[in-house]
UniProtKB/TrEMBL annotation:
Chain's gene name: JMJD4
Annotated ranges, domain JmjC: 83-242
GO CC term, one of those recorded: nucleus
Species: Pogona vitticeps (central bearded dragon)
Family listed: Belongs to the JMJD6 family.
GO biological process: positive regulation of translational termination
UniProt protein name: Jumonji domain-containing protein 4
GO molecular function: 2-oxoglutarate-dependent dioxygenase activity; catalytic activity, acting on a protein; metal ion binding; sequence-specific DNA binding
Amino acid sequence: MGSLTLNISCGHLGISCFPKWAQRVYITGEAVVPVANCDVKEYNSNPKEHLKLKEYINYWKEHIKKGYRSPRGCLYLKDWHLHRAFPEQDVYTIPVYFSSDWLNEYWDAIAVDDYRFVYMGPKGSWTPFHADVFRSYSWSANICGKKKWLVFPPGQEEFLRDRHGHLPFDITSPELKKGSLYPRYAQSSPPVEIIQEAGEIIFIPSGWHHQVYNLEDTISINHNWVNGCNVAIMWSFLQDELAAVQREIREWKDSMEDWHLQCQVLMKSYTGIDYKEFYNFLKIIAENRIFVLENHHSEEDASKHSYRAAISGLGMLHAVFDLKRTAKVLTSLNANEEFKKLNPETLSPPPSALLHRLKAAIDTALL
């Protein structure tokens, strides 16, 4: 296999029902991809391995031929950072409704990570019960195939916790009906069930827990994203996560040197971000929008910065809206006692200076 096109009809692993906003893309079969075994539970997830794409495609074909059975289990290619792995490829165009994407704007800026994924899996592959990273929004577009989503509004997950406070791995498991194990399950409401067809996009709001099944051989594109509409939810989530870490190691508070710093380290290892990085996240978002407001007559300058050009395309009022939401969260962060313990005035620029500049840019733009 020299190359693989994402323009495939799932029945024979080659794509035909391709949305207009997606492009034909060729990826080498030597690409290494993450693959999860849906038949095995390891702690509260499926164990993963890394395979060459051509090896996974060969497995998939063989899996279909054998009636969707394999001694290797049901393998699901998931969380593949295709965009990051092949930046020179024009993989797809983001639908305009999802174009205000602060998460990927930030992680692209620091060239560390991204939250754009490709999922490819046979009928029967699935993703266990979860809510999305940082309580972000997510969108998922089916290139081909069909998915079933089981979705719970925020708060319903509390009725699904076991007697130790842990969320279930599989919300369809008969174990949940055992009152001795899941004492509040009887109070829960049934999930919202959604069938997603080929060519359709589903939007999952912040904090909506969900479990997803591939009812057919399916390929999808998935994004997590945050913007001015839910950045406050992200900030609330981080405060809750830090409080949870502090509760777990509170017995060492008096004996552990720099206990508050260790809490930040543990929070970052679990969630992927700490308070200082959250400040850096807000700083880059703010600076990009300030640049657009200050240089809105210079398309040439904006075009040198791809994200700034994209923000400029959203419009001046959108940039002002983003700055207002950033200012509100940054004000709360700057007043937070745990953040104050991190010597924020040593950051560059100090939060107070960034807030002053941010508010000045808003005032000038509204004149």
